[in-house]
């Protein structure tokens, strides 16, 4: 591929609190993974996370303000940078247990949108994830100073429980959680991951969620999440697995350049950027199987046309797959116990 891969940066003059705080969150989270196997590396990750978060908080602004011409409209920071600051602080508190990050969350939480009623969790909006993560400090670590975050997390979780007065989520007739027509599966996988994560915290604390007067158990949250994963993997009206290469029936014409263009072995000559449109509108299955990729999924009527130029439903993305990994890991580990 010889398409230009331009590198952009954020700095004091062109701040990007969202991308910087997200980076700090990733570094802090990664430090937990390496804490036992490579303590020195884990310490480096935490040290860098602190520096990046300090930059994000000190030089506030959204990356898409200064880089609008390059990242918008597809990847504008529509939710702003406040959610990432809360998300970054939450992960740094989790990784360091430093009172300074606890104080930051307590002092800035409301200003950063801790109690906002947005009920999506994805690449752009981290509020729901931050609420669930911070609630762990109360439910598992018994940190009473953060008790209000259980209420914030409960509000998000209850919005997805069917049949309760607090339910704000649409489901298709086949049972799929449906937020938006464009790449809806990202919300399915991210919501399933948070449902399972919160169920784990509640089970540890021997607590339930009160949803409009109804006590919702961890077992019910697990069942809702498992139903979503089962649907994604083929238990749906079309009998279609939305993970490429899994099951007997799965998407064959996904909206993905490398999957739809011929391989270099089959076509040694250069293929220019604009020449890719020939493959985009061609019939037949993609020549290269992108095994494991999860596409945007069906529409509100559980229909999936499997058309390459239908990016809303046929495009795979890392932000669809990433939370699914967590959900699948939980379900595989808990098999027979749900």
UniProtKB/TrEMBL annotation:
GO MF annotation, one: cellulase activity
PROSITE patterns documented for this protein: GH9_2
Domain Glycoside hydrolase family, residue spans: 1-328
One of the GO biological process terms: cellulose catabolic process
Enzyme class, spelled out: hydrolase
Active-site residue list: 255
Keyword Hydrolase: yes
Coiled-coil annotated residue ranges, if any: none
Enzyme Commission identifier(s): 3.2.1.4
Keyword vocabulary terms for this entry: Carbohydrate metabolism, Cellulose degradation, Glycosidase, Hydrolase, Polysaccharide degradation
Catalyses which reaction(s): Endohydrolysis of (1->4)-beta-D-glucosidic linkages in cellulose, lichenin and cereal beta-D-glucans
Domain of life the protein comes from: Eukaryota
Family: Belongs to the glycosyl hydrolase 9 (cellulase E) family.
PANTHER family: ENDO-1,4-BETA-GLUCANASE
Identification of the protein by name: Endoglucanase
UniProt source species: Zea mays (Maize)
């Amino acid at each position: 591929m010889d398409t230009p891969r331009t590198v952009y940066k954020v700095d004091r003059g062109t701040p990007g609190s969202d991308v910087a705080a997200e980076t700090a969150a990733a570094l802090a989270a990664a430090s937990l993974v390496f804490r036992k196997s490579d303590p020195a590396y884990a310490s480096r990750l935490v040290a860098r996370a602190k520096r990046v978060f300090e930059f994000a908080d000190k030089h506030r602004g959204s990356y898409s303000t200064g880089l609008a011409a390059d990242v918008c409209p597809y990847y504008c920071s529509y939710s702003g940078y406040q959610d990432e600051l809360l998300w970054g602080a939450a992960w740094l508190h989790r990784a360091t247990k430093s009172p300074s990050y606890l104080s930051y969350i307590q002092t800035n939480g409301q200003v950063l949108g801790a109690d906002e009623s947005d009920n999506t969790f994805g690449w752009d909006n981290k509020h729901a994830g931050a609420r669930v993560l911070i609630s762990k400090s109360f439910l598992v670590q018994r940190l009473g100073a953060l008790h209000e975050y259980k209420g914030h997390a409960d509000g998000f979780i209850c919005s997805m429980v069917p049949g309760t007065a607090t339910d704000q989520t649409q489901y298709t007739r086949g049972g799929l959680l449906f937020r938006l027509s464009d790449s809806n599966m990202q919300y399915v996988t991210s919501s399933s991951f948070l449902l399972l994560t919160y169920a784990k915290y509640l089970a540890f604390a021997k607590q339930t969620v009160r949803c409009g007067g109804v006590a919702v158990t961890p077992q019910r949250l697990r069942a809702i999440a498992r139903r979503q994963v089962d649907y994604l993997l083929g238990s749906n009206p079309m009998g279609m697995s939305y993970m490429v290469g899994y099951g007997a029936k799965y998407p064959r014409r996904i909206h993905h350049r490398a999957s739809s263009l011929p391989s270099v072995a089959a076509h040694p000559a250069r293929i220019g950027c604009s020449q890719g449109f020939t493959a985009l509108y061609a019939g037949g299955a993609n020549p290269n199987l992108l095994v494991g990729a999860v596409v945007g999924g069906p529409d509100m009527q559980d229909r999936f046309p499997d058309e390459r130029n239908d990016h809303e439903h046929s495009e795979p993305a890392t932000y669809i797959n990433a939370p699914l990994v967590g959900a699948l890991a939980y379900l595989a580990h808990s098999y027979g116990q749900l």
